[in-house]
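Section 5: illustrative case.
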């Protein structure tokens, strides 16, 4: 029997689609969420805190959308 007929369980490495996008979304979620919590807790102006909150919400929505499209 030659190697041509040998059965292999090895699959070629397949890169997950959007892996870099997912990493960027998680990073923005962590950074914006931390900034939102910090600015809110320290009593900074809502004009500074609200945009961080909106970025946090947008990151969550984008992560859920990305997950549902690529599962």
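Designed sequence:
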């Amino acid at each position: 029997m030659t190697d041509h007929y040998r059965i292999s369980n090895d699959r070629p490495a397949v890169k997950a689609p959007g892996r870099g996008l997912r990493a960027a979304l998680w990073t923005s979620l962590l950074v914006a969420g931390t900034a939102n919590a910090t600015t809110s807790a320290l009593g900074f102006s809502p004009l500074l805190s609200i945009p961080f909150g909106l970025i946090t919400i947008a990151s969550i929505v984008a992560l859920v959308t990305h997950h549902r499209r690529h599962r």
